[in-house]
Amino acid sequence: MKVYLLKNVERIGVAGELIKVADGYAKNFLFPNKLAVEVKPENEKFYEQRAKHLENRKEVVATETSMLSEQINGKKFTLKKKVHDDDKLYAAINASEVVEVLQAAGIKVSKSQILFDKSIKSIGTFSVTIKLSSRLQPVINLQVTR
Looking at the chain, which terminus has fewer C-beta neighbours within 10 angstroms, N or C? Predict the structure, then answer.
């Protein structure tokens, strides 16, 4: 049976794809969970056009994401914080502070895209990963100073 996926289904396909699956799988899992709709001969052209449009849109987003990745990969940003006498920070650096530093440089990312290798609690230079997509994860250098 030919179906159009409405949502990503692990090991089957991604949203916006036209795929063939077993009739039972479609009727017992995909349709009840509203993960896909059946593609009939009368509406096949509509879903093919929709799939092509979605593919073009994904291509544009992927291009923009890769350009952003190249723009920020390996760059160095500085964050000034208050510290104790023994060079320890009063509070650990959090994702929102990194987002603010990036926004000041004209780069827009969300807090959920910031990944720390370990928590930053002292002065120094640290690597911070920005997860733009599952494949694109540029790393920035964050220098924490007094």
Answer: C
pLDDT attached to residue 74 = 84
CA distance 122 to 42: 64
H/E stretch holding 37 reads strand 36-38
Question: 10 Å Cβ neighbour count for 122?
Answer: 16
- Indicate the pTM of the whole model: 0.63
Which residues pair with residue 80 across a beta bridge?
145
Helix (H) or strand (E) holding 95: helix 95-104
Q: What digits encode the pLDDT tens for the residues 59-83?
A: 888 888 888 888 888 889 998 988 8
Q: Which domains does the chain have, with CATH numbers?
A: 2-68 (3.40.5.10), 73-145 (3.10.430.100)
Instruction: Name residues whose C-beta falls within 8 Å of residue 141's C-beta, 6 or more positions apart in sequence.
Output: 74, 75, 76, 77, 125, 126, 127, 128
- Torsion sign across C-alpha atoms 36, 40, 45, 48: positive
Residues of 83-108 as b/e, b for ≥16 C-beta within 10 angstroms? beeeeebeeebebebbbebbeeeebe
